[in-house]
Design a protein that fits this description.
The protein is of the alpha/beta class. The chain has eleven helices and eight strands. Helices cover about 40% and strands about 15% of the residues. The strands form two sheets. A six-stranded parallel sheet has the order 3-4-5-6-7-8. Helix 9 links the parallel strand 5 and strand 6. Helix 1 runs antiparallel to helix 2 and helix 6 packs parallel to helix 8. The longest helix is centred in the first third of the chain and has 22 residues. The radius of gyration is 19 Å and the shape is globular.
Length: about 375
């Protein structure tokens, strides 16, 4: 199923202080699970209203039940062990790099045994949204190969001598989750991946010893297996090609040209969400490879800084992209989430709201 959804956004939103405080208290044993869930529910109801009032076409729960965009698998799967050291290497650049490279909220996690789902990955999220969203809602999952940072040679290979078997088991968990999401009423399911831009940016150290070509092929195959299942269930299938997002910093840069022909022509996604908020992403020329009928969501509004973009410039940029993709197959959004990790980017909630309002107002002026 496809939908215009001209005013889109990637998913994560700034966690309010009351929610962050509740998580901290819960971690220290001062708050029980039920009370924490009640606080999360209330925060999600408020952020749903914020999105509806801003006028965006699709809403999310802001990822308000996750520590990071990756953590729903971390929290739901057996076979994982948490370690003490930070889970992100200090590879961050841009406006927030000083904070991003010192504030590492996610601890390293290692796979030590066969993976299986102890519970649903997004069950609490989707059932609550189905009841309370009041608008079309989106559920997101990190691409399976984004979890290859859990694969530690000398440890994980005792359970998975072949790294492909590790990816295949994650795909199997995801396929079950997609079926459950569709049954919950989810009509829009999105994969988020940094893998392609790790290739674009020459971040070979993040590719688990694979060649860039092998890493790209493995990622595309895993993503397509899930996206096909999403479409088979009648939901909109989307993929967001991320460049890294933590505390207003980024991890990768470079034109999409390197991976565009294979990715844009062969992806099973109905919607491709791309980061185009500054010169790091290159021009729109790679969009010439986008398959017929697919929607490209142009991430023209940055979540890294609070300054509002000039709306006339945004409209001119959409016109430029329309030289490569028909304007009826375009939409706009922020380039990434506002809080891929729970600490969030360096904006206020009011500045976040203004960004979402700009997305919605610009979309109305372009597409009506």
């Amino acid at each position: 199923m496809t939908s215009a959804y001209r005013a889109d956004h990637v998913g994560s939103l700034l966690r309010p202080k009351a929610l962050l405080d509740a998580w901290d208290l819960h971690d220290r044993g001062g708050l029980d699970d039920d009370t924490l869930t009640t606080i999360e529910d209330e925060a999600i109801l408020q952020v749903l209203k914020l999105q509806r009032d801003a006028g965006v076409d699709v809403v999310t729960d802001g990822e308000f039940r996750r520590l990071s965009w990756l953590s729903n698998l971390h929290d739901a799967a057996s076979g994982l062990v948490r370690k003490l050291e930070p889970g992100y290497p200090p590879f961050w650049h841009g406006p927030g790099e000083a904070v991003a490279n010192t504030e590492m909220p996610v601890k390293a996690i290692v796979c030590v045994d066969k993976l299986s789902a102890k519970r649903r990955l997004c069950g609490a999220e989707s059932t609550f949204l189905a009841k309370h969203a009041g608008a079309p809602f989106k559920t997101s999952l990190a691409s399976p190969t984004m979890h290859l940072n859990l694969y530690a040679p000398g440890v994980t290979d005792k359970a998975y001598p072949d790294i492909q078997g590790f990816v295949d088991d994650i795909v199997a968990i995801y396929l079950d989750e997609v079926d459950a999401l569709v049954a919950d009423g989810a009509s829009y399911i999105q994969l988020d991946t940094l893998r392609y831009t790790q290739i674009i940016g020459g971040m070979d150290g993040q590719l688990n010893g694979m060649t860039p070509q092998r890493a790209a092929e493995q990622t595309l195959a895993a993503d397509n297996a899930i996206l096909k299942r999403v479409k088979a269930g009648g939901a909109t299938a989307a993929i967001h090609i991320c460049r890294g997002n933590h505390r207003s910093a980024w991890a990768a840069e470079g034109s999409y040209e390197v991976i565009a022909e294979d990715l844009f022509s062969r992806t099973e996604a109905d919607r491709i969400l791309l980061e185009y908020d500054d010169e790091r992403s290159g021009g729109f020329e790679p969009l010439r490879f986008v398959g017929k009928g697919k929607t490209v969501v142009l991430g023209l509004i940055t979540t890294k800084t609070p300054q509002l973009e000039d709306q006339d410039l945004l409209r001119r940029r959409v016109d430029q992209a329309a030289k490569y993709v028909p304007i009826e197959n375009l939409a706009i959004s922020p380039q990434c989430g506002f809080a891929s990790t729970h600490m969030g980017n360096l904006l206020t909630e009011d500045e976040e709201r203004r960004k979402l309002e700009l997305v919605a107002d610009t979309a109305r002026k372009i597409w009506g």
